[in-house]
Structure formats: structure tokens, C-alpha cells
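For the sake of clarity, the format in which proteins appear in this thesis is described at this point. The record quoted next illustrates the convention:

___
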Amino acid sequence: MQDFNGKVALITGAASGIGYAIAEVLGESGAALSLVDIEAGALAKVEHEFLARGWSVLSQTADVSSFDAVHAAVKSTVHRFGRIDIICNNAGVGLEGPVESWTDAGWSWVLGVNLMGVVNGVRAATPFFKAQNSGHILNVASIGGLTAAANHGQYGASKFAVVGLSQSLRDELAPHGVGVTVLCPGFVKSRIATSARNAPGDLPARQAWLMETGFTGPAKELFQMIERRVDTGLDARAVGEMALRGLRTNAFIVLTEREFLPDIERRQKAVAKAIAVLGQWPTQPQAQAQTHG
């Protein structure tokens, strides 16, 4: 998709961070914007800002873990603008901790937003894309979807799933004129480190307690490192521009920095080693020798 002028883009998690940046660069490129976020106050401020720039903007508050909510947002977008050309499934949350800290509620929340939020966006937008034989899906995963970190199981599992889903969709939807790109950013200045503020039930209080007093050793060191790196990470605007280039070139994976390449290469070497060992195994079961007395 080379020209965004007159195109219509729906972006989830659009009120801050990477979602805001992607919306901004698309707006500057002439796209009409459908902004979706769970935080109504922050979303209203972004809508006001973008309208002041003279852009065509629709804003909708929605919980992306609900298919009905995402479907309604997509239908409202088509009703307002007459079409939808891009869906950016960006909304995401972080919930870290060792195995002992896991709960059903935590897993449901992380997978509900990070994975099912993407699934719901794809389900809602794809029929429109197929009908017009064009469109582009931009899924925001993470470098954590290509290499895993200790004490990051919930987040990593959700982001690995998004990368795998995107690869499957890219092959499935290409014959219908639909592109699929997955953005895998590293540390970016955003509010994801405090995303538990939007978690349901007692998860916000539980995560705050865990972060302050509940973790020790490597887990605590990891959380402190993440907080530092997010504060000093890439500017979200730069990541938005990288995402735009990915859309223009129909790239499959968009990376934002080279820092994590050794981790990715280590995983690739492990796969290569497994393949090499596989070649040493017999392809057919060996019949056991029988002896007769």
C-alpha cells in the first residue's frame, strides 16, 4: 500500500504510545482515522488534537478483548467513512512474574487483550477487506514474540502467538489482496509498564504489590530493568514511522533495533541444532532383533 491518502485506518490502543504514533503518521499521510482505546479521557484528548489538525477522525471506546465491541467499532468505521483499508491491532498489556505469581485472571487478561484483541480485529475487518479485494492488517507484537525472557511467560506466550497468527494470515489472505505485517518493537517509551492500571478485579493491586514487595532476585531485577529501558527506549514516533514503511513495502516482520538480534540468533541456532540431530535419527522404526532359544 503505497498511498495512504483517502484511506481509512482503524487503530486500537490509539490514545498513547505506539498506537498514537501510528495514528499520527497515518493522519499526516492523508488517512482518515478511527481511534479505539479503553481509556475514554485519554482518547478524547487525542481526538481533539487530531481534529484540530484538520484530519477526519472518529473515536470509540472499546475493550478489544470483546469481539462484539471490536466488531461494532469496525462497523461504525465503515458506516462513517464508507470503507476500511487498514486495521492496526496495537492494544496490548504487560503482566510479568514467575510461575508462582500466575493466576487464571492474569492469564485471561493478558491473552484476552494481547492475543484475542488481535484475533477480534482480524475477524471483524477481514470480511470487509475480502469484499473490496484490498486491505492491510498491521499486528503489533513485540521482540518478545521472537525471543523469550525469564519471568515473562504470560507476555511472551501472547506475543509469540501473534507472530504465528500473522504468518498464517499472511499466506491465507494474500490471494484476496490483503497484506499482513507484524511489528516487533523492542523497548519503546510508552505506558505499557503501567498497563495493569486497566486490568479487571484485583489485578492492579496485586501487580502493584508484586512489583513493590513480592518479587526478589532475578524477577525483581528484570522488572527494574524493564522500567528503566521503557523510560529510555525508542521514541514511539520513530516506531510509528517504521510501521508505516512496513505497510508501504508489505513487509512481513518489522523490527525496530538490532539489540536483540543475538537472542533471536540463539533461538535459530537451537532450531538448526535440532534439525541436525533429527538427521541422525532413523526415519523408520527399527525392528527389534529376536532371538530363538
